[in-house]
Fold this sequence. Notes:
Blueprint: H1 13-19, E1 31-36, E2 40-46, H2 66-82, E3 91-103, E4 112-122, E5 126-135, E6 138-151
Antiparallel strand pairs: 1-2, 2-4, 3-6, 4-5, 5-6
Amino acid sequence: MSEPSEAVPNWDIEWIQSVLPHRYPILLVDRVLEMEPRKRIVAIKNVTINEPVFTGHFPGRPIFPGVLLIEGMAQAGGLLLLQEIPDREGKLLYFASIENARFRRPVVPGDQVRYEIEVIKLRKTYCKLTAKALVDGEVAAEAVLSSVMVDR
């Protein structure tokens, strides 16, 4: 007789939308793969040519904007930070700072971005995270992100 298996959490788009206020076209996380509450999160974004940003960035050479990689990393961090807050519907996370942002390779349609986020410092209304966006195991972008939680 085999041991009962532990249920795997379903951190799909419906769960993501229950935690984050973002919606299309600015919702930049498609699924959460791993999470250790208050410590780390791994999430993904599937980049497709259908995204509105590609009509202008850049015609004939579509490249996912670096600022959207930063936003996606912040949203993944937001999932980590907000998922345990009981009254999260009444809260928002604002950027406090972006430090040491580096862009290492372009992200193009067809890529799957893997966000890897770790907590550096966590307070009641302030958090500092180290964040990476990877494609095929290569760092596409990285930064240290700080946020503050405010009432809506």
